[in-house]
Specification:
single chain, alpha/beta, Rossmann fold, 30% helix, globular, binds hypoxanthine
């Protein structure tokens, strides 16, 4: 990642051979939320392995395509499948697509993920509006020399999850009768799910949710001045005193059930975005 600027230019140059559009909104579709991709009336799609410098997704539940199309009457660029630290990528690789989407023209990024619930008031299948995060990955995509033309050396994480967009999401959830919870997301490396003791610790530290993604992408989005709105789907409950066996298959199955609800919510939010 020596010449990040040049790599971004090459990726965008390739995408520009397919479209001259500049979508103002980017969406990252999380685990099992590929169904959300159906909400994208796609004009075209590009497999990641065709885009210069894009990592290639290694998780089966993540398809690995960049979609350009319409959602809620607006042109969007959507990532069907994302990259994770546990796959062996660096956080610079994990967040490269967020840089590319910015260069394509996005001003706002909607992120979604599957997460374990730490807050005992949550239930499997709940949609949670992310209010904040705790970076528990022991790494940061901005470590290394800063390119001041991309963003500041010490980005502020005030309002990381944009307050106006959160208020809009809450209003839409009321109007559309799609209940949502609110919570703080703890980002971990994975690939192990947590022990009971770890779930307990994360709850004590202030987390409502835990998952293996999203935090690096949000950090880079904020570094480059992109506004963020985030949602989690609670796929399993991390209650230390009532822990049940879990598996990736179960997580994907719950995410797929909740997907259409989140998809409708996001469509309605996008319709009402200015
Ligand atoms: N822990 C970490 N990541 C997750 C979980 C979890 O319980 N559920 C979905 N992603």
């Amino acid at each position: 990642m020596e010449n990040l600027k040049q790599m971004i230019d090459e990726a965008v140059g390739f995408i520009r051979t397919k479209t001259k559009d500049s979508p103002k909104l980017g969406i990252i579709l999380g685990t099992g939320l590929g169904g959300l991709a159906k909400a994208v009336k796609r004009e075209f799609e590009i497999p990641y392995d065709q885009i210069p410098h894009f990592p290639v997704s290694t998780v089966e539940s993540h398809a690995g395509k960049l979609l350009i199309g319409m959602v809620g009457g607006k042109r969007v660029v959507a990532m069907e499948g994302r990259f994770h630290l546990y796959e062996g990528y660096t956080l610079k690789q994990v967040t490269f697509p967020v840089r590319v989407m910015k260069a394509l023209g996005i001003e706002t990024l909607i992120v979604s993920n599957a997460a374990g619930g730490l807050n005992p008031q949550f239930n499997k299948g709940d949609i949670v509006l992310m209010t904040d995060h705790i970076n528990f990955q022991g790494d940061n995509p901005l470590i290394g020399k800063n390119d001041d033309t991309m963003g500041p050396r010490f980005p502020d994480m005030f309002n990381a999850y944009d307050m106006d967009l959160r208020n809009l999401a809450i209003q839409v959830s009321i109007d559309e009768k799609i209940p949502i919870q609110k919570g703080v997301y703890v980002g971990v490396t994975g690939p192990t799910l947590e022990t009971a003791a770890e779930y307990r610790m994360m709850r004590i530290l202030g987390g409502d949710l835990v998952g293996m993604s999203t935090v690096p992408e949000v950090i880079v989005a904020r570094h480059q001045g992109t506004k963020v709105l985030g949602f989690s789907v609670v796929t399993d409950m991390g209650l230390p005193d009532a822990l049940e066996a879990c598996s990736h298959q179960k997580i994907v199955a719950v995410a797929e059930i909740a997907g259409p609800k989140l998809s409708r919510l996001i469509e309605k939010i996008v319709e009402r975005m200015s």
